[in-house]
Design brief:
This protein is of the alpha/beta class. The chain contains 23 helices and 14 strands. Strands 7-6-5-11-12 form a five-stranded parallel β-sheet, sandwiched between helices. Strands 1-2-4-3 form a four-stranded antiparallel β-sheet.
Amino acid sequence: MNTETFISQVVASSVEALYGEVNPAQIQIQKTRKEFEGDYTLVTFPLLKMSRKSPEATATEIGEHIVANCEQISSFNVIKGFLNLSISPLFWLRSLAEMSANEEFGTAAPSGRTIMIEYSSPNTNKPLHLGHIRNNLLGYSVAQILKANGHNVMKVNLVNDRGIHICKSMLAWQLYGGGETPASSGMKGDHLVGKYYVEFDKHYKSQIKELVEGGMSEDEAKKNAPIILQAQEMLRKWEAKDPEVYELWQTMNGWVYEGFDVTYKALGVDFDKVYYESETYLLGKSLVQDGLDKGVFYRREDGSVWINLEADGLDEKLLLRGDGTSVYMTQDLGTALSRFEENKLDDMIYVVGNEQNYHFQVLKLVLKKLGYDWSDNIYHLSYGMVELPEGKMKSREGTVVDADDLIASMVDTAREMSSELGKLDGCSEEEANAICTMVGLGALKYFILKVDPKKTMLFDPRESIDFNGNTGPFIQYTHARICSVLRKAEEQGIDYKSHSNNELLSEEIELIKQLDTFPAVITAAAENFAPSMIAAYAYELAKTFNGYYHDHSILREENDEKRRMRLQLAALVARTISKAMKLLGIDVPERM
């Protein structure tokens, strides 16, 4: 039982004893504001009809009854119609013991809900970049948080493995690759294919320039450049399952998947199922016919199918081209239906950039008009761009921040800064490598996840590895520091699992209070799909512990019972930091 529920029960019991049966909705409990003394506050105004007394008299009467009948409440004070209750140190000591004994503390019981979360969704014509990193980290962390809330979570990836952009890389490799492969070039497969996507754009621009210089308008030149016409022909051949084109497509996509897997492993993200657009792009055509039959959609003279959403404040939306080919919306309608039906989903979350806000608004509305009420359970977890101090990124021009390069540079920066601060002193080469990888990735993940997803963010690699700020390494170092204390305690043979200490300092109570809120923070983070709430919690807990550790000795405390209690408290802080960071996909070192 969490503390707020306990307080509510205590208050309800006293109110019933004083005034008779009470409606739970009348018991309004909130945390006491910082400027007042107390832990929890009861708002008495809803109870005045029962008490038939003034707010102050009602609050005083309830406060006196609670203190007389509940040893866990040590005192109370009344401010107008508000009853502020102070919880006794004895209660917090028991809470510490209960939390320490419960290895599952923070994790909710099974909810019975099945939630699918789709993230990553890369194109197979280029490697993953900084924008994909935010997407992957956000999707993976939200999945971990939802699991901690007891939900059955399915992590899925929809790979965009078909279309004109894929053909551009394939054609450029055919024309300019000279048979180059990942093995012959020493390049990761996704990097090699991305190289030819940039190569295509270079030749395309050159051909457009030539045609414009020959007197053609720029728009005409873009449509008639030989290389784009060749790419379009290649796409037609792919759709017709031309053996040569299809084999090349499979080969080059295979190179990319091997490259992606390396990046995903380095980032520490994974998927329960991978969908491929080449297998799903025809889904949804039957829904289009269903919509026509129901009069929800209409057909234009050219044979194309549309829906008019102007009455809903949107516009007209194309669902099927005149030649019968699908658009993204067609596919997403079909994919959503098949996923909900096959997996009996309760909720579906799409982690996709904010440039697709309108798309998902339309998707939900169209499904609703087709009669699928579960469309209310589709959620678009929208996020903003990640920018670097140098500015924005462009894939076609090869100016993106490559994910692999960024991960490597983060580990190098972690090594450089850790060495400068002496954090690696006494470590073997193997230990140093493991710590630098953990710190570099922890810095990257924390810096990205601590920001509200909706905000465009500026990523500064050096700032993210500051060991003293609101950063991953600061929290990781706090965990390592506690582990060092606990190791020394074990070496000295101190058993801190139990103690009979019955005194607590105000700083110790503050730490226990923070630990006590961990389950509520996880619940709130799940309800809001907000890893940033977990990040803020982990930082505040680490900061509070560091202040306490600076002012009070743990191992050098002379009173044996106090020392054991402080070790138990430190161990619970370390365990909770580790759990919180794991929800962000971040590992914490035991030595540093």
